[in-house]
Every structure is written in C-alpha cells, then in structure tokens.
Amino acid sequence: MIIMYAKIFSSMFDGSMRGKSNLILVFVNMLTRCDKEGFDDRHPKSISDETGLPLDSVIDALKALEAEDQESRTPDRGGKRIELLDPDNRSWGWSIVNYEKYRKMQDAESRRKIWRESKRKQRQSTNVQDNLGQSTSVQDNLGQSTMSTSCLKMSTEAEAEAEVEAKAEEKVDIEDISIVQFSPKLSSIAKKQPSKQNDHSIQFDEFWKAYPRKEAKKTALRSFERCMKAGLKLEDMLIGIENHKKTEQWQNPKYIPLPATWINNERWKDEVMVSDPSKQKTGPNGKRTPEQLEKIKEIEDRWIYEEEICK
After folding, report:
1. Between the CA of residue 108 and those of 61, 84, 86, 117, 121, what are the distances in Å?
2. Closest among 50, 71, 63, 52 to 23, alpha carbons compared
3. Fewer CB within a 10 Å sphere, N or C end of the chain?
4. Per-residue pLDDT, 94
5. C-beta of residue 85 within 8 angstroms of C-beta of residue 95
C-alpha cells in the first residue's frame, strides 16, 4: 500500500465546510490517500476504519461531498468536491474534482519555497564573499605596497642596466663600474661583454699560424681556450712547436699529431730529441738502420694512439 500525503490549505476551514468536522475529516483523509491523478478508489468501510468515524457518518459525509455547493469557491461542476469514478456500476471510488487545481497550487508553493531557500543561500554566499572581499582588500593594499617597492627596484635595475650597456658601447672596462654589483642580472651582462683577458682568438691565431698541421681547427680552439683558462702560456706552446719542428718525427707531416691532441697532452712540455743534420740518417748502404726503423715505428705507434684518443 502506497501512503500518500497532501498539503491542507487553511481556506478549507474558512469556507462552506466550516464547523462540519466529519465532512472535513473524511475529505482530508481522501486527499491524503488519493493517487497523483486525484483518484481515491476505496470503499467507505476503509475510510471509516482509518478515520474512526461510524460507517453511517462516513457515508453521510461522502454524500455531502458529492452534492453541489453553490457557496463553494470553485463553482466548476456545481461546486461538487468529489465524483464517483464509475457511477453506473458501483457506489464507491471517487475522484477529487479540484485536485489538479490544488496540486498546481502546491507545486507553485513548493517552487516558491525552493526559490526562497535558494535566495537565502545566495545571500549567505554573498555575505561570505563580502567578508572575503574585505580580507582580500586588505591583502590588495599590502600587495600594492609590495608591488610598488618591487616596481621601484625593477625600475632602478633597468636604469642601472642601461648605464652598463651605455658604458660598454663606449668601450669602458665593465669591471671598473661599481654599479655592476647591483644585481645578478647586471653581472651576467658584464660577463657577456668582450674583454682582452677572455678573448683568446688572437692568441689562437698565433698558435694556428705556427703549428704545421692545419686540421680540426674548432676542436683545437676549444682545447686551446681550456688551456688558456687553466693559466698556461702561449709563449711556452710556441717554443714547444719550434722544438718539435726540429725533431725527426715532424720532418714527415704524417707523424705530426692533430693540434688538439698536441694541446690536450701538453706536448710542448716534452723533452724532445732535436735531430742533428750533421749525423748520418742512413746506414752505409743508404738505407735506414734497424735502430732508426725501430724509432720510426715507435713514433708511428704513438701517433696512431694519440689520434685515437683525440677523436
């Protein structure tokens, strides 16, 4: 059994049923037990059992509800409140005449209630947002103060950077400008400026001009710059090149190491054996001696090894 419910309007007690307690009790019982179409398909005995009224009193109330009522607020169908569902076949089971009307009124009231609840929650939400807004306003004021300080600092840095760049264009030594210490960004700008101490291209050109084997120049430049940064001197390299040029190994270009190999192994520090032109380079028969051949083989093996590790 499905238990239904209905909203009871106070106008029921102010109209033509006022003071008729049995009539009101039966009608209210029917409103709470009808389906969504307003049909109450029950026997009067069932209504009597639920309301506690005698069966005769229930039947009298049902007849009054079926009768026309000229004083009813809703004159449709002569002011009747209920009608038999099947009057030709049985004397019980009714439909409530104005059920749809009152149901719509209930729906409208429900919608108004939902709307009022929605507005209430909206107002609460607005109040919360207003409170948060006041807090945010305080934070904004603090943020504006912080932002002003930050903007001032950025502006000062920008002016300082402009001054550094202007000095650089005038070829003023960056390291002499105390303003460089103002920010890390200015220091990075200063590092990017060319200086005589950090520019090794001119020194490398001297090395390259002196070294007899002209191969893998970019690799040689990287090795050269690494040595210069380590504090090694170009003069020592140039002297080493001239000493190696006098060796028997370097008389054949095939046995001259790649420039990068020579630099990486700091070969200018070698104790080279300078060849003596006055000494005989071949044996009595005009061929190289076994000692010379062994020396050449040693040099060749060393050259091949150095070429491999430089790759």
Report:
1. 30, 28, 31, 14, 20
2. 63
3. N
4. 93
5. yes
